[in-house]
Design brief:
The complex is a heterodimer of chains A (507) and B (367). With 507 residues, chain A is an alpha/beta fold. Chain A has three domains: 5-237, P-loop containing nucleotide triphosphate hydrolases (Rossmann fold, 3-Layer(aba) Sandwich), CATH 3.40.50.300; 253-335 and 423-507, Rossmann fold (3-Layer(aba) Sandwich), CATH 3.40.50.300; 348-421, no CATH class. Chain A has helices spanning 43-50, 73-78, 96-101, 110-128, 143-156, 173-188, 200-206, 229-237, 296-304, 328-333, 343-347, 354-357, 376-389, 406-418, 436-451, 463-469, 492-499, and strands spanning 5-14, 17-27, 32-37, 58-63, 66-68, 81-84, 161-165, 192-196, 209-214, 217-223, 255-265, 271-281, 284-289, 311-316, 319-320, 336-339, 369-370, 373-374, 424-428, 455-460, 472-477, 480-486. Chain A has a six-stranded mixed β-sheet with strand order 6-7-8-3-9-10, with helices on both faces. Chain A has a six-stranded mixed β-sheet with strand order 16-19-20-13-21-22, sandwiched between helices. Chain A has a four-stranded antiparallel β-sheet with strand order 2-1-4-5, with helices on one face. By secondary structure, chain B is mainly α. Chain B contains 15 helices and no strands. Chain B has helices at 9-34, 39-52, 54-79, 87-104, 110-139, 143-164, 188-194, 207-224, 226-236, 238-244, 248-275, 286-296, 301-324, 330-346, 348-366. In chain B, helix 4 (87-104) runs parallel beside helix 6. Classes of the chains: A alpha/beta (507), B mainly alpha (367). Chain A binds chain B through residues 13-17, 19, 44-45, 48, 304-306, 327-330, 332, 338, 340, 342, 345-352, 356, 359-361, 363-364, 369, 372-374, 376, 400, 403, and chain B through 1-4, 6, 220, 224-227, 229-230, 232-233, 236-237, 239-240, 242-246, 356, 360, 363-364, 367. Chain B: Keywords: Cell membrane, Membrane, Transmembrane, Transmembrane helix. Chain B: InterPro entries: ABC_transp_permease. Chain B: It is a multi-pass membrane protein.
Chain lengths: 507, 367
């Protein structure tokens, strides 16, 4: 039997960037095939070629042994390939049925097509356990169910081969488990699944085979059963990496940041954070676990002074922060620094040269220039020094901020904040879009800061990261803090329940 | 992931605009052919009239002075992410500021009166721009809409004032009495004459030097100062500004104040340098040309100076052309200017993409 998908010697360049170099991939029918690689390794490019977003410069695509040309997503759908994107392509104001019909309405009048969709959805629900309320408005569904709609859409269009791009990034652990169950039943029914992810745990849990990409090349394809996370990590990075940073037990010191009954309302009047209270002590990392969008971002921004809290107060080193001084500028002066969640929207200015991004938030510091004029030579020299310390590549202070890879951008932001000797450091998603080699470096830095007595509040959607770094873990769900655990006394299932809002009292 | 459109600086600032201008002239040439005239003769008259004679050059540089100021005004606001369409109204109000200062302080000597007149222009222009800036910052009223409305307000306000308040009682013209003579900014031919150099007389005056100094100051402000840094952060990434503790509202008002003050330079050149009285419609729509100048100059002072020179050539040469070849009317010249704006502004991306394509290809070929 010929493989479901065969990619032969695929090449693709964007300008001077060779995103895919002679890539070969063979995916057997009825298997779950994982593709791993660091950011920029070429995974997404390769899948975009398979799904018809890009055309390869050279190379051949075979589906079920037949060479075909895929020039657009329509060609891919025709060939039985479906894709579930990381960012859903759904119309939130339409119902499930309407979303599934979109682009396949079947004629000018909707009624005929709709009947067909309903019948087909009922069949899919029966065959794969894809139960869903077909008349629900998509915007009202949970993220996990929205993803299910995406999968239904692909199956409705006759997909035999399903590509999922980082599908668990937005899911709670129980939702991820449900997804994996679904993928297994798809496999049993003979469907082929390609899973793109950077989470090695998921690869190990669900795939049959795994292909590793590095710098545009396919470096290995392995049987999952005969490999291990350290081996995969080494293949991805090209050198040995530590997946877990060691840290010594430490007794935390005096309270540095005390948050009392903080509530945040966003611009649309929606309550984002409800009555959050907690303390971060010196020499302690407090992690906030939660699925993206449950108020963690707003909590960080409120503490940093970026958005006025509706209610509540915070104390720094024991003294209350008055609402008139609760702004980012003053908080920095008080020693509360902030590595923001979203590098490109907040952490730096993509259009600026790196040395200008490296003073974001500090451009008023007297020593950075003479009077109103900034001393560029000095800024460049300062950053060059930091780039060496933080191993930023390329070490080019004049290069545009957007030209650095995610990991190197993050190092520039971290260097800016850490080198100013914070007392309290807020850290949001420190390793999102950061490659494994840099993750190790960033984790070490954070642990070193903690050991030096800094109080760190860490927000991350990567549960591994939270569990690995934190001394104490808070979980958030729907804007509320739903639980608190010592990192040493909890596990993924426990946190998963709390993140889903199933609190101790309710249980 | 899209194909990278980052060009080397020289291509971005010189090559692409140059290609735009050449393409614009080719298309304009076709228009000239279409009305049955010879485009080569037309080009010759255009250049001859603007650069070929000392007098023509003087007029070209006079217009250039106007365009530098309004171009800088648009650019400063643009760096803060604001589209200031109100240069026309701000310059008009600046004219009022000049008239009030000069005609009320006639007893002062020139070395005091001239700077005060310039300050009056800057202050009135700034104040007129500050209101839309404030409305944008505090109320979210879109600056494009409000500045356009403020152009109309300025224009009717000045008509009312000139007809009913500021007009000399015995005069029928809606204009103020002449400014005191010591407030005239010296003509360039007078300055040269003082050094014994004979140059043909024109409207060109020392305001050109002020314009070039303003261009340098804007460069220093935008690219080197802390304030300019904050302005660019707000314009380029407003969320990052909030993160950094820079208030976008405050920067919006400041950028508009600076922008309005720069637009006031147009009034300084036209009124203190040439007309020597406040009169109706002295801005002649140049406030709008500033938008094209800033676009074409990529909001960089050097680019703005070059673009201003081009538009100076177009205005002065165009006037000569209309005179020498009556079939090509003033309106035709406006059409040609419009084509250049179209190519330099709206179609800029067209050539940018092509140039990027050719350059990366060459780079790959060399590898």
């Amino acid at each position: 039997m010929s493989p479901a998908i065969q990619l032969i010697a695929i090449n693709k360049s964007f300008g001077a960037v060779h995103a895919n170099k002679d890539v070969n991939l063979s995916v057997e029918r009825g298997t779950i095939h994982g593709i791993v690689g660091e950011n920029g390794a070429g995974k997404s490019t390769l899948m975009s070629i398979l799904y018809g977003f890009y055309e390869a410069d050279s190379g051949e695509i075979r589906v079920n042994g037949k060479p075909i040309a895929i020039r657009s997503p329509n060609d891919a759908i025709q060939a039985g390939i479906g894709m579930v994107h990381q960012h859903f392509m759904l119309v939130e104001t339409l119902t499930v049925v309407e979303n599934v019909m979109l682009g396949a309405e079947g004629g000018a009048m909707l009624r005929v097509g709709e009947a067909k969709v309903r019948a087909e959805l009922a069949r899919l629900a029966r065959d794969y356990g894809l139960e869903i309320d077909v008349d629900a408005v998509v915007g009202d569904l949970s993220v996990g169910l929205q993803q299910r709609v995406e999968i239904l859409k692909a199956l409705y269009r006759g997909a035999d081969i399903l590509i999922l791009d980082e599908p668990t990034a937005v899911l709670t652990p129980p939702e991820a488990d449900a997804l994996f169950g679904l993928l297994r039943s798809l496999k049993e029914q003979g469907k082929t699944v390609i899973l793109i992810t950077h989470k090695l745990r998921e690869i190990m849990a669900i795939t049959d085979r795994v292909s590793v990409m590095r710098r545009g090349e396919m470096v290995a394809t392995l049987e999952t059963a005969s490999t291990s996370p350290p081996e995969l990590a080494e293949l991805m990075v090209g050198r040995r990496v530590l997946l877990r940073v060691e840290k010594a037990e430490k007794v935390p010191g005096a309270p540095l940041l005390e948050v009392d009954n903080l509530s945040v309302v966003d611009a649309r009047g929606v309550l984002r954070v409800a009555n959050a209270s907690f303390t971060v002590r010196a020499g302690e990392i407090v992690g906030i676990a939660g699925v993206a969008g449950n108020g963690q971002s707003e909590l960080l921004e409120a503490i940093a002074g970026m958005r006025p809290p509706m209610l509540g107060s915070i104390r720094l080193e024991g003294s209350p922060v008055h609402s008139s001084e609760h702004n980012p500028h003053r908080m920095r002066e008080l020693g509360l620094l902030h590595v923001p969640e979203d590098r490109l929207r907040m952490g730096l200015v993509p259009a600026f040269p790196a040395f200008e991004s490296a003073i974001l938030g500090f451009s008023d510091e007297p020593h950075l220039g003479r009077g109103p004029i900034l001393d560029h030579e000095r800024l460049i020299a300062d950053l060059a020094r930091k780039m060496e310390q933080y191993d930023v590549r390329p070490p080019a202070p004049r290069l545009k901020s957007s030209k650095f890879s995610g990991g190197n951008q993050q190092k520039i932001v971290l260097a800016r904040e850490i080198e100013r000797n914070p007392k309290v450091l807020l850290v949001g998603q420190p390793t999102r879009g950061v490659d494994i080699g840099a993750i190790e470096f960033i984790h070490r830095r954070l642990i070193a800061l903690r050991d030096a007595g800094v109080g760190i509040l860490l927000v991350s959607v990567e549960l591994d990261e939270i569990m690995n770094l934190s001394d104490r873990i808070l979980t958030m769900c729907g804007g509320k803090i739903t639980g608190e655990r010592k990192a040493s006394e909890t596990n993924e299932q426990d946190l998963g329940l709390l993140m889903a809002g199933i609190t101790d009292e309710a249980a | 992931m899209s194909a990278p459109l980052d060009l080397p600086k020289w291509a971005d600032t010189v090559l692409v605009p140059a290609i735009s201008v050449v393409a614009a002239f080719l298309v304009a040439g076709l228009v000239v052919v279409a009305i049955g005239e010879n485009p080569l003769t037309a080009t010759r008259w255009l250049l001859q009239g603007s650069l070929g004679t000392g007098e023509g050059l003087g007029f070209t540089l006079f217009y250039m002075t106007d365009f530098i100021f309004v171009g800088l005004a648009v650019a400063v606001a643009y760096h803060a992410g604001l589209f200031n369409i109100g240069g026309e109204g701000q310059a008009t109000l600046a004219g009022l500021g000049i008239a009030l200062v000069l005609n009320n302080l006639t007893f002062l000597p020139g070395f005091l009166l001239i700077p005060l007149g310039i300050l009056g222009a800057a202050a009135f222009g700034a104040a007129w721009a500050a209101i839309p800036g404030y409305l944008q910052a505090k109320r979210g009223s879109h600056i494009v809409i409000t500045t356009i409305m403020f152009n109309w307000l300025a224009s009717v306000l000045i008509v009312y004032l000139l007809v009913n308040v500021l007009r000399e009682p015995q005069s029928m013209n809606p204009e103020t009495r002449a400014f005191p003579e010591q407030s005239y900014i010296p003509f360039m031919h007078e300055v040269f004459a003082a050094f014994g150099i004979e140059v043909p007389a024109s409207q060109l005056n020392l305001t050109l030097v002020l314009a070039l100094a303003a261009a340098y100051c804007v460069w220093l402000l935008i690219y080197r100062s802390r304030l300019g840094y904050a302005i660019r952060v707000v314009g380029s990434n407003p969320t990052a500004a909030v993160y950094a503790g820079i208030s976008p509202a405050r920067i919006t008002v400041i950028a508009m104040v600076l922008s309005g003050a720069l637009a006031g330079g147009l009034a300084v050149n036209e009124l203190m340098g040439y007309q020597h009285r406040l009169l109706l419609e002295f801005t002649s729509g140049y406030g709008f040309v500033g938008i094209a100048v800033a676009l074409m100059g990529r909001a960089h002072p050097v680019g703005i100076i070059l673009a201003s020179l081009l538009f100076g050539i177009l205005y002065q040469g165009g006037a000569e052309l209309a005179f020498e070849q009556p079939a090509i009317t003033r309106d035709m010249v406006v059409v040609i200017g419009g084509i250049i704006i179209l190519f330099a502004g709206a179609l800029d991306g067209l050539f940018r993409r092509a140039v990027a394509h050719v350059l990366t290809r060459q780079k790959l070929a060399r590898v």
